[in-house]
Amino acid sequence: MNGTAPLTRAVTGEVSHEGMLLRADDALEQLHLRAGGELGGIVACPALLSLTQMVVSLRMRLARAVRVSDGADNLELWVEAEPSDNEVKLSILSWRKIENVAASSKLQAVWPDQGQEPVRLGFDRALRLVDARGPVEDIVRPADFGSSAKIILERFFGTEQFAQFQNVEKFLPISRRNVTTLNDGNMLVWGQAERNTDGEVSGYTLFFAQNEKIVGPTGLGGDQSTPGALFGNQLAPVLRQPLNRIIANAETIGSELLGPIRENYASYARDIANAARHLTALVEDLGDLEAVERPGFATAKDEIELGDVARRAAGLLALKAADHSITLVVPDDQTHVPANAEFRRVLQVMLNLITNAIRYSPDGTEIRVEVGAGDGCARISVADQGSGVGMDNHERIFAKFERLGRTGDGGSGLGLYISRRLARAMGGDLTVEDAKGGGAKFTLRLPQ
Amino acid sequence: MDGLLGPQDDLLSIASFHARDVDALCQDVASIIFPSAVHTPSEATISAVSVKLLQIVRDIEARLQGATPESITGPLLARSGFLREPDIVDFALARVAEDNLIARLGGGFSEFAVELLDHADESVAHAAQALLAADSLQLRAQGRSYLTLPPELLYKVCWRIVAALEVLSGSRSDEVINKARLLISSYDEAHTAPASARKIAHFIGNEAKVSLSNPHYAGIHLFVAQLSADLNIGHDHILRMIDFESAFPMMVLLAADGVPKDEALQTMIALRGQILLPREAVLFESEYVHIIREMAREQLNKWSAARLAFLSFCKT
């Protein structure tokens, strides 16, 4: 029973009136065993057991399409069952694989060109969030349950786009449409009112699916490498593990810990380790990219202190800077600039900015990390003494996969793109300008 | 019903609203009052249900103790409320729907079933033969209407008639009991129209989808069986949705099966041409292509689950 062809002869079996499988052809016996049954035990496939019980109680010949699961497959069997004094004779005349109509994942196929399940938010009659399904991580928080649809939608899309959702309040359907999110993403949105068995409106269901076909305003680099929806959660960990082993083994060889090898072989091993590190960084970036481009991606609002973030980030990269004799100048302990943003995301942005500064600065130079406040926002900047970013490239540098023509330096072209998306998701922005005395100065602005 | 379309006219929502009657109508028929139905069955439908059930009772009585001009147990069973039990009324409503649909298709036999008599697969050929026989002998000819009952209902009705005969005669008759046993043991579900059509759909559904999807060519049994196989929904439920007063449940049914708009329109006209309202036609024209297949399937599953729950526990 492992194909889709019709049976050349009937598969038969005999079941006792108590439901025990007394005898079965091999195919039926295997199906029974795979379903968790035992030889001589109760028929393991519920639908077959139910059929035999009905034959026993009615003492009639029945002929039905019976649906059973066989591992990952759903099968439809054509079964004819006949009662006798002590048993029920089963004849399976045919079987075929079927599409699982009742699967809960059926909405995955709503958008055939999309490889992910849509987010599905259920609201009650008072339009409070009561149900969230699909890839809602990073989108829905525990505190959202019970919150009004208006608050949640404004957080995703901003007040300007809220007009697109007027039908929700009127319990009218929303036909599928593209809506721009606050973090410059594009989502396909649709929805409908829910009704109870009396036909009365009982709530509203909204669906969100990432619209990969539309390039957002910041998507200057195109969308050719959009990651799969489950990349960060499932694929990235799978990739990281072998990559880490490659790095560890290559470094062991390259450092000649297990004995001397030819110089060029040691060089090759270091190249392998570096390439694997690059791939690891790319995996991390793609995971982040997936997260920031997820519909409705939102960040937490922590009360943080930017001087502290600057010192931590610089501390993490001090050794790397020292390798290039680069001096990291950070705010002193007395500097306190509060901001309202997610700590780990701000740290992520800072690590990216300082890493870039180290990468593109000449050895022996200085990188200054400064914090400040003004115009209602907090600022943290990273200024280097490298070659700088030309005026023409001040926007282009934030595009996805934009490398400004550079290759072979370990960058993926995603770091600044992700950092700006993160900054905007936190209600701030990330910009670049020329630093005094040359070099580039990146400034992250955040709400206070 | 007729009027301009408004923003509230979402086909799926309207269909949901109407389809609740397909779930609950048998209860309303049972109460004969219809307090909660959106659509109340017409007098003609109620009368047809009654005629169907009494015919079945009379045919079973004839098998048990010989033919009589009038049903013996029918009035007693009706008074006791047995003939208004939801599963029985639901069955009768499905048969009335079946009659209506067969009439709208011209009343002929299934041309496709005739063609399948020569099918290379013996199982298919036998099923086609059984289908043609059931269509003629059980549905159109007199005397075997009880064979249209599903096995559970035949068992239930048959023994209830035996009990009613005992009550009316005041004594137990072994002869009647033995004949009842014989009637039940001679029943073969494979020889009923829904089962034989479903068997054909199971065996050749994928290769003959075009033929099965054409109700004029396939006939109502095969057309419904193909939908039943595709959507995993009961034969009688589909019959009732197609013949329902509102066209919207049928639109959702076709959308769930992925039927293209042009083909769906032809099917609607074939099966509901005489009763299709202008408003339904307009809404079909504007909304059908926007129904998302998987959402329609989900909606159907909800209706199906509600119906099964109702028929199992006699409540909505």
Structure described in brief:
Chain A is built from ten helices and 17 strands. With 448 residues, chain A is α+β, with helices and mostly antiparallel strands. In chain A, the strands form four sheets. Chain A has a five-stranded antiparallel sheet, covered by helices on one side.
Please tell me about this protein's structure.
The complex is a heterodimer of chains A (448) and B (316). Chain A is an alpha+beta fold and 448 residues long. Chain A folds into 4 domains: 87 residues, Beta-Lactamase (2-Layer Sandwich), CATH 3.30.450; 107 residues, Beta-Lactamase; 63 residues; 146 residues, Heat Shock Protein 90 (2-Layer Sandwich), CATH 3.30.565.10. Helix content of chain A is 31%, strand content 27%. Chain A has 10 helices and 17 strands. In chain A, β16 and β17 form a beta hairpin. In chain A, α5 runs antiparallel to α6, α7 crosses α9 and α9 packs antiparallel against α10. The N and C termini of chain A lie far apart (66 Å). The N terminus of chain A is likely disordered. With 316 residues, chain B is an all-alpha fold. Helices cover 69% and strands 0% of the residues of chain B. The longest helix of chain B has 23 residues. The N terminus of chain B is likely disordered. Chains A and B meet through β3, β4, β5 and β9 of A and α1, α7, α8, α9 and α11 of B.
